[in-house]
Amino acid sequence: MTIAICVGSSCHLKGSYDVIAKMKAALAENKLEDKVDLCAAFCLGKCSTTGVSIRVDDKIVSGVNTDNFDDIFKEYVLGGLGV
């Protein structure tokens, strides 16, 4: 699985580096570092949303923030990996 987190100017202002930190911690906590390639992206084309955009494989998820991160992680990452 590949996860790209937008760090473009709009997402950066909406907290993309906080989302990256939470993603790294969640991957480590679930021992998924070897199953997920985590990278930064500069634009996923969803700049008008209220939060950070991430791409999980071919699916773009918009509006990610530290408040809804856990639910999104469970659905798209754990669910996508069948964990």
Helix content range of the residues, please? 25-40%
Q: What is the number of helices?
A: 3
Strand proportion, as a percent range, falls in: 25-35%
What about the largest sheet?
A: 4 strands, mixed
The CATH class is Alpha Beta
Total number of beta strands: 4
Brief summary:
This protein is α+β, with helices and mostly antiparallel strands and 83 residues long.
Looking at this protein, list some descriptive labels.
four-stranded mixed sheet, 4 strands, Glutaredoxin
Protein architecture, described:
The protein is of the alpha+beta class. It has a single domain, classed as Glutaredoxin, CATH 3.40.30. It is 39% helix and 25% strand. The chain is built from 3 helices and 4 strands; from the N terminus they run βααβββα. Strands 2-1-3-4 form a 4-stranded mixed sheet. Strand 3 (52-56) and strand 4 (59-64) form a beta hairpin. It is globular, with a radius of gyration of 11 Å.
